[in-house]
Design brief:
The chain has helices spanning 33-36, 42-49, 52-60, 77-84, 87-95, 112-118, 124-136, 153-160, 163-171, 188-194, 198-206, 211-214, 227-233, 237-245, 262-269, 272-280, 296-303, 306-314, and strands spanning 9-11, 16-18. By secondary structure, the chain is mostly helical. It has a two-stranded antiparallel sheet with strand order 1-2. β1 and β2 (16-18) form a beta hairpin. α15 (262-269) runs antiparallel to α16. The longest helix has 13 residues, at 124-136.
């Protein structure tokens, strides 16, 4: 889900800007710290906070509605308004020529539609209105996910959890099988599973998501998770059992960086009942997992999880 942090105002000679430090999912040289700062223009800041009079004044003065986002997590004015649920400002920006599909900052590159679809903390009815407005303005419903931490609109909606938005996107042709971003990406099903939106998981399965295809790219990704690994990592027994019933690969390998098997995820979280279910489903007890390439029983011993060690040993691990 998308988190919005309250802006911090800093004073500069000719403008008030927002600056906050964030961490990138990619390695960045210390010398480039200045590039990581988000510097928001007055228009972007006003759009983010919902200040319609100020947005109106700035646009009337000739301010460019398409000033690009700055820094790793910067946003255009339209993206900022979409994330925070300010429909009147969205309408004004679009009428002033805002680019509905402008990419976001370097880490995520999320368009206004992606941000709106995955937003939390705004009324669901407002959210669907904003999604509809952006789509009516020509937003690309199947724009591919940015390679670093990106999402398609549908993936974002499945992560955010608004079933109305998910249904609307699916009804309008959103690709339920769109691949995840290469780094920290999630398919629609993986996103819904990780956030424990069971109603959305059921809808996606009904729409024909094929689990082995959905999870096919995880082992080559960075910080990826299959739907089952995601469910095991949060200890959701109902979801684990549903995904196994639907044909999830109980021994699918984790991603090459920051990943783990479903068994390893259950051990790491201390979810012994999930661990038992995965073992009964035939999980490979000798499969290595995580960055340190430990087996599940090695991971359990390292964590001092005596119950998990006992369960795995009795199963032959």
């Amino acid at each position: 889900m998308f988190m919005h942090h309250p802006p911090t105002i800093q004073h500069f000679p000719q403008a008030e800007c927002l600056a906050s430090r964030t961490n990138s999912t990619e390695n960045v040289d210390d010398d480039d710290e200045e590039e990581q700062e988000e510097t928001w223009s007055p228009l972007q800041l006003a759009a983010s906070s919902g200040n319609l009079p100020q947005v109106t004044t700035l646009l009337s003065s000739g301010i460019n509605p398409n000033a690009p986002p700055q820094g790793w997590y910067g946003k255009t004015a339209l993206q900022a308004a979409a994330l925070n649920g300010h429909l009147p400002i969205i309408n004004l920006l679009l009428a002033s020529g805002a680019n509905v599909d402008a990419p976001g900052g370097n880490n995520g590159g999320r368009t206004a539609l992606v941000l709106a679809a995955g937003a939390t903390g705004i009324p669901p009815e407002t959210q669907i209105e904003i999604v509809d407005r952006l789509l009516a303005a020509g937003a690309d419903i199947n724009r591919p996910a940015h390679k670093y931490n990106g999402r398609t609109p549908l993936q974002a909606a499945c992560e955010g959890g608004n079933l109305l938005v998910v249904r609307r996107l699916l009804d309008l042709g959103a690709d339920v099988r769109a691949p995840a971003a290469r780094t920290a990406g999630r398919t629609a099903l993986q996103a819904a599973s990780e956030q424990q939106h069971i109603d959305i998981v059921e809808l996606l399965l009904l729409k024909g998501v094929i689990l082995h295809q959905d999870d096919s790219g995880v082992s080559h990704s960075r910080s990826g998770l299959t739907a089952l690994q995601a469910a095991a990592s949060v200890g959701n027994m109902l979801l684990v059992e549903r995904l196994l019933e639907a044909g999830a690969d109980v021994s699918a390998p984790g991603s090459r960086y920051g990943g783990c098997s479903a068994l390893g995820a259950a051990v790491e979280g201390g979810f012994v009942e999930v661990l038992r279910v995965l073992i009964r489903a035939g999980a490979n007890l000798n499969q290595t997992t995580g960055n340190h390439r430990r087996t599940a029983i090695q991971e359990a011993r390292m964590r001092g999880s005596l119950e998990s060690v006992r369960i795995l040993r009795e199963a032959g691990g």
